[in-house]
Amino acid sequence: MRRQTLSNGWPRNPGMELDLSWVLDTRINLSSAERRVASLPGRRTVKKDAQAAWLLKAVTCIDLTTLNGDDTPERVKRLCAKAMNPVRLDILEALGMNRRAITTGAICVYHRYVTTAVEALGDSGIPVAAVSTGFPAGLSPHHLKVKEIEASVADGAKEIDIVITREHVLTGDWLALYREMQDYRAASGEAHVKAILATGDLKTLRNVARASLVCMMAGADFIKTSTGKEGVNATLGVTLAMLRMIRAYEERTGFKVGYKPAGGISAAKDILNYQFLMKDELGREWLEPDLFRIGASSLLADIERQLEHHVTGAYSALNRHPIG
Fold it and tell me: What molecular function does GO assign, one term (predicted)?
C-alpha cells in the first residue's frame, strides 16, 4: 500500500497485525469514566470572544449531513450551498472573519447523491463523504458492501463512512471484525474510512473500546460513534472510551486516528464539551478537521444562532438559520 499522508503532512494510519492479547486485555473503569465526564462542564468553560472562536472551529469540523428517506437532489444541492457558506456573511464581518475561508468539514450523503454533491461543491475543496456498507444496519451481504464502497469512490467520494457488523463485537469475533474492516479499507483506496461502531448497540464501554482498537488495527482513519439511527447515539462517556483508545493506539504505533461523534448533537453548548474533552485527552491537533469531525445537521443552525447572539446581543428564531 502506497504511504499516504493527511493534508497536514501526518502519515495516514496503515493499520497493523491484529493483536488479540491487547484487545482482550483492554478494560474500562465505568465509575471512573462517569466521574470524568460528569466533572467536565464545571472544569471547562469559555465565554464571549473565546466561545465564538471555539464555535467557529466546530463549524469547520462538521460533516453536514442529510440521510433521510425523503432526500432529493435539490435538498442535497441546498445543503452543499450551506456547506460552502455555513455562517452568514454579516455575522462573519462582525466577528472580523469575513476574509477567512470558513466551510464545513464535509458533506455526508447516501451513495445515490454522491455525484450530485460532488458537482454542487465544484472546486470548493469540501470533500463528499458517503455512508456505505448497508447503512445503517450493516446487514447487507459482504460482497455488496464492498461493491457499494467502490461505487461511491468511483463517483467521487473522498471519504467513506462504513458501519461495522455489530454481531462480531457482541459475540467477540474480533478476527471477523478485523478482516471486515480490512476489506473496507482496501475497497476505499485513497478515500479515507470512518468506522461507525454504532456504540448504542454494543452494550458496554469495554465492547466500544475493543471494537475501536480492532478497527484502528485494520486501518480505519477515523472511529465514529453512531449512525444517528440507534436509540442511543454519541455520549461523552462513549467519547472518553474511544479517545483513550486513540491515544493508546498512537502511543503504541505512532499513527494518529481521527474521531467523529454523531447523532443527537444539536446544541452549541454540547459540542463545546466534546471539543474540551478532545483537547484534554488528545491535544490541540485533534481540534482540526483532519482528526475531528462532527456528524450533524441541526447543530450548524444553533451555532450560527449563538454567533449572531454574540455580535448582536439578541437571539433570533432558528428558522432564520436554515441548514439547506
Answer: deoxyribose-phosphate aldolase activity
